[in-house]
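Hey, quick one: can you model this chain's 3D structure?
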Amino acid sequence: MRVENKVSLVIYAMGALGGIISGVLSANANLGYISGLLLYFLTPKVVKTIIKDLPEELKDDRALLRKSVWGFLLFWFYFTILVYNIVLPQQPVLYSNQSLLYNATKG
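Sure thing. Here's the predicted structure for all 107 residues.
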């Protein structure tokens, strides 16, 4: 596997992990999103630790942060919303007795 693909997979995994942590923490506190931001800044350290044969242009932390921003952000956002909606209990609220849900459940 090419080194760029390995780096992308690690970045996507970090985004997913950050999203899961943020989603769980956001259900209880407002600090959940800060954990995702902190994990984003730890991503270059994790990439350098896992992948030993990085090319010269990816050995700089700032270069890795610039290249990883969109991949991390998309995976983080997706998993944050997914986990947040799974963790919170969803109860349907019947606002009108004319609604289809009301007629299906009470009718």
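One thing worth noting: Residues 3-106 form one domain.
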